[in-house]
Amino acid sequence: MLILGIETSCDETGVALFDTDRGLLSHALFSQVDMHADYGGVVPELASRDHVRKLLPLCDQVLSDAGRARKDIEGIAYTAGPGLIGALMVGGSVAHALGFALGIPVLGVHHMEGHLLAPMLEDNPPAFPFVALLVSGGHTQLVRVDGIGEYQMLGESVDDAAGEAFDKTAKMLGLDYPGGPRVAALAEKGVPGRYRFPRPMTDRPGLDFSFSGLKTYTLNTVNAEKKSAEGLSHQVRADIALAFETAAVETLVIKCRRALEQTGCDRLVIAGGVSANKRLRAGLEKMAAKLRAQVFYARPEFCTDNGAMIAYAGAQRMKAGQRDGERIVAVPRWPMNTLPPLTEVRVTGLVD
């Protein structure tokens, strides 16, 4: 089954072509980072308009790269949520229009399920069951995964997501958008031990996260250093970046260790934009080795939003008979544990 995947949940326009027999055939991505950098963050209306401009040309590009034509497509998967409502509607509209024109089924896919399944595109995919850490600008969640659609929420952030805390810290330090990679790059120049930031909610049982306190602690440190004799020099900023990153990473590692011990799983999947962080990967690998567990993650290009993960997730569900009805599905807020299991055939988006 040849599936076209469309991702437009935020500021990345991603398209991919996935064959259930041959695997990923082609993929293309256009990032809006440069456009939004002038505003210090994503402007929803600008994001939606750029998806309109880029989506169909990218669809034609992936078909050309794979040596296929539109008539060869057997199904279309698109991101239905969570995300920016305008951006979601662009992807859903194009998917349904193409599906109607070609007479093929269409299915709205959960964005975070796409991230969770992205490591399945690798040569050594994880087997079920496993624990997944989904960590991005909008989500920080620990999930037990027994199969596609079989999700048990173990813990999540009660306030800010880890990626959001990285972005806010970048602004405090005067770094450009996107903040996460820039904080990590600056932290490489930091001196270990100059500051020690708190590891929030690690002094109590449970698997929930909280990063608002760490963000506040960082802000207070920045403000205090501005008044010091040295001021907020480049080295001070690098040391603060390192202290923040170390605290955030160690918090995630501690919670992942608890989740593996609590569930008895020996496989950990890490997905989402923050999963590309090198310090986080190293910390999880070291922790997993002590527990004799394995860590799986997608290649760096599939850690951020992309069409390949949507094509793969959609292909698995469409093979099981799941599809949209006549109405576009766009759900800005969508708990992942409400998804049906893969074995349950369900038609969504029917006209009322």
TrEMBL record:
Residues noted as binding Fe cation in the record, renumbered to the chain: 111, 115, 305
Localization annotation: Cytoplasm
Database matches in Pfam families: TsaD (PF00814)
Domain of life: Bacteria
InterPro entries for this protein: ATPase_NBD, Gcp-like_dom, KAE1/TsaD, TsaD
Residues of the Gcp-like domain: 24-312
Cofactor annotation remark: Binds 1 Fe(2+) ion per subunit.
GO cellular component assignments: cytoplasm
Cofactor(s) named in the record: Fe(2+)
Top-rank EC class of the record's enzyme: transferase
Transmembrane segments: none
E.C. number: 2.3.1.234
UniProt GO MF annotations: iron ion binding; tRNA N(6)-L-threonylcarbamoyladenine synthase activity
GO biological process, one term: tRNA threonylcarbamoyladenosine modification
Enzymatic reactions: L-threonylcarbamoyladenylate + adenosine(37) in tRNA = N(6)-L-threonylcarbamoyladenosine(37) in tRNA + AMP + H(+)
This protein's record includes keyword Oxidoreductase: no
Binding of substrate, residues: 134-138, 167, 180, 277
Assigned protein family: Belongs to the KAE1 / TsaD family.
Function as written in the Swiss-Prot or TrEMBL entry: Required for the formation of a threonylcarbamoyl group on adenosine at position 37 (t(6)A37) in tRNAs that read codons beginning with adenine. Is involved in the transfer of the threonylcarbamoyl moiety of threonylcarbamoyl-AMP (TC-AMP) to the N6 group of A37, together with TsaE and TsaB. TsaD likely plays a direct catalytic role in this reaction.
Name the UniProt record assigns to this protein: tRNA N6-adenosine threonylcarbamoyltransferase
